[in-house]
Design goal:
Length: 589
RNA sequence: GCCGUGUUAGCUCAGUUGGUAGAGCAGCCGCCUUGUAAGCGGCAGGUCGUCAGUUCAAGUCUGACACACGGCUCCA
């Protein structure tokens, strides 16, 4: 397996050289950046200078590449000195290569790979490269050029914008096709497409980009997911609070967001001239509820819970569907507690996260998000050390497998981030539990301890869904829109065959009206519709299926006679007696 | 923000070399009373993303803007 992976990587890497050779032949004045092998293929970043390149040019480049491969060219390594390499780069006006070479240590031996036609010894392309490569292009498997995109030189937006040509490459044709098929499947499940088809949310240019509007159906889904996420904490003694969505900027100067959080949206009051901001987080507001009264150690831990929107001025190019928005709903909670209560609070939240993700059918992995050396943080080094050690100790105590993500911490402290794996095997950061020694200090929060002295509480931030919008985008793709019964916007649809069994349809309606599900959330009154239109049954079924309604009940004269309903679900068809219908539905939730 | 692609009826899409727009579905109106994924017929529906420009003439060509989609170090 190892050897196979290595071979595929060699092949992908060699293909990037072949692509460069083809490009140079077609566009002689280009300057080359880097051309690595990647997960599903390869790319090359190229500066095309004056020439414009677009998707339409890909077939031309691909054809040229196939020609080079058909010639049976070889990849030959050649060692040169650093000075020789620099001279080569200068002579050929390869400024990017020159930059790369000049960064290599003095005296280092450098490898070049030549793409050579063995029949006449012609060198089609010579490139600075550490390898490794296939020996002969005959070893190359299945590949195709994929798309064209822009990429900053070395990923730095202050530097030149190069054109990146992406290619896909696999060992066999089957693997390439399987990959393309998987892409197709992902496209079919795309939450933006399903969001429209299932009537869950929409956008309006008048409202603005990155600002989703939820329809009645989408709102039900949101509410159900939120209820699930809040339920765990309500049962652990969290109490709901409610705050306004704006505050004076003084609040964020105190919290540090004004200085460290560029996405903060600010505005000036025409009335008072005050500078205000839309809340980018909820903790400062919540801290002021804690600060509103003298607190005793006896009432700790104080646990607040609120699902509410925060607003962030995200970079426009990064907005997309529900996964990246400017108005974000967090199922947020904040706990103010003593040092020795931290473990208990974390324990409850970890158990809740595990249970919630099991209920939605996603596997969890744990990332401990620690700080890096950047300056986007508040609080002193000692405090960070203490918090990070505590987080790691808890991961061990609760027997969670974890890895450490450096540079992933929040502004005010390290986080325990739960990564959920969806049906397509993709990993997403959703639930998060954060330990914060900084915010309480900045806000001067305190409580009176048993000895009468004042102490600073510790704050624990948590969101189990993370952002509801993001969670929904993933959940929609995870389920492909086939939501479990408990959270489906429309759980049951009754289809009449004709108008001759209306009396019986009314009986069924009455039975459904009495159905209340209690799992996984309590008091979940059944949501159902009755399709009495005079369309054919086939058409009604098609419509209900397109909306991915989990349970479809067909009720006609034959059913009335037998006092049953014809049930149609994704699993198939069956008959259920009217008397058993309620129990049948409850059992399926 | 930057690079590339796109925007035609509520939705999915046609629209050849510039000659003032088409289909299917959905909608509405009839007929059909229908048994497990589209019954039949008719009607209505569009400043072709927006604003400029070129032209006798622009959905089609040019420019700007808006919005959407894909990408923006898996470090020779």
């Amino acid at each position: 397996m190892e050897a196979e992976n290595l071979q595929v990587e060699k092949m992908r890497h060699s293909l990037s050289h072949v692509m460069a050779a083809a490009v140079r032949e077609l566009y002689p004045t280009t300057t080359f950046g880097i051309g690595p092998a990647i997960e599903n293929g390869f790319y090359y970043d190229i500066d095309f200078g004056e020439s414009k390149v677009s998707d339409a040019d890909l077939p031309k480049i691909e054809k040229k590449m196939r020609g080079i491969i058909a010639r049976g060219c070889e990849m030959r390594a050649r060692e040169v000195s650093r000075d020789e390499a620099l001279a080569w780069a200068k002579e050929n006006k390869q400024v990017y290569k020159e930059e790369l070479i000049s960064e290599l240590p003095e005296g280092e031996t450098i490898t070049f790979y030549d793409l050579v036609d063995p029949k006449n010894g012609e060198v089609l392309f010579a490139d600075l490269c550490k390898g490794s490569h296939v020996e002969n292009l005959k070893e190359i498997g299945a590949w195709k050029l994929d798309r064209i995109a822009g990429a900053y030189w070395r990923g730095d937006e202050k530097r030149e914008m190069l054109t990146r040509l992406y290619g896909l490459a696999f060992a066999t044709q089957e693997e390439l096709e399987a990959y393309l098929e998987q892409q197709e499947e992902a496209k079919k499940r795309d939450h933006r497409k399903l969001g429209k088809e299932l009537d869950l949310f929409c956008f309006s240019d008048l409202v603005g980009s990155g600002l989703p509007l939820f329809t009645p159906r989408g709102t039900i889904l949101r509410d159900m997911l939120n209820e699930l996420a809040q339920g765990y904490r309500v049962r652990c003694g969290y109490r709901k609070v409610c705050i306004p969505h704006i505050a004076t900027v003084d609040l964020y100067k105190t919290s540090g967001h004004y200085q460290k959080f560029p996405e903060l949206l600010k505005f000036i009051s025409q009335e008072s001239g005050d500078e205000l901001a839309l809340k980018p987080v909820n903790c400062p507001h919540h801290s002021q509820i804690f600060a509103s009264a003298p607190r005793s150690y006896k009432e700790l831990p104080v646990k607040y819970l609120e699902t509410t929107m925060v607003y962030r001025d995200e970079r426009k190019g990064e907005l997309g569907g529900l996964s990246r928005v400017r108005a974000i709903t967090q199922d947020d909670s904040h706990v103010f507690c003593t040092e020795d209560q931290v473990e208990g609070v974390f324990g409850e939240l970890i158990e809740s996260a595990k249970d919630l993700y099991a209920k939605v059918g996603m596997k969890l992995t744990l990332r401990l998000s620690f700080r890096d050396d950047g300056d986007g943080y508040i609080g002193d080094a000692e405090m960070w050390e203490k918090a990070q050690t505590a987080i790691e100790r808890m991961a061990k105590k609760f027997e969670m497998e974890y890895f450490v993500g450096v540079g992933e911490a929040a502004m005010y402290g390290p986080k325990m981030d739960f990564m959920a794996v969806d049906a397509l095997g993709r990993e997403w950061q959703l639930a998060t539990v954060q330990l914060d020694y900084a915010m309480p200090t900045r806000f001067g929060l305190e409580y009176t301890d048993a000895d009468g002295g004042k102490k600073t509480p510790i704050m624990i931030h948590c969101a189990l869904l993370g952002a509801i919008e993001r969670f929904m985008s993933i959940f929609i793709e995870h389920t492909a829109g086939w939501f479990p019964l408990w959270c489906a916007p429309e759980q049951v649809r009754v289809l009449t065959v004709n108008d001759k069994a209306e009396a019986y349809v009314k009986e069924v309606e009455k039975a459904l009206r009495g159905v209340v599900l209690d799992e996984p959330i309590k008091n979940n009154q059944l949501r159902f519709e009755i399709d009495r239109t005079d369309d054919s049954l086939g058409k009604k079924i098609k419509r209900a299926t397109a909306m991915k309604i989990p349970v479809v009940l067909i009720v006609g004269e034959k059913d009335a006679e037998a006092r049953e309903v014809s049930v149609r679900t994704r699993d198939g068809e069956e008959k259920v007696g009217l008397d058993e219908l309620v129990g049948w539905l409850v059992a399926r939730s």
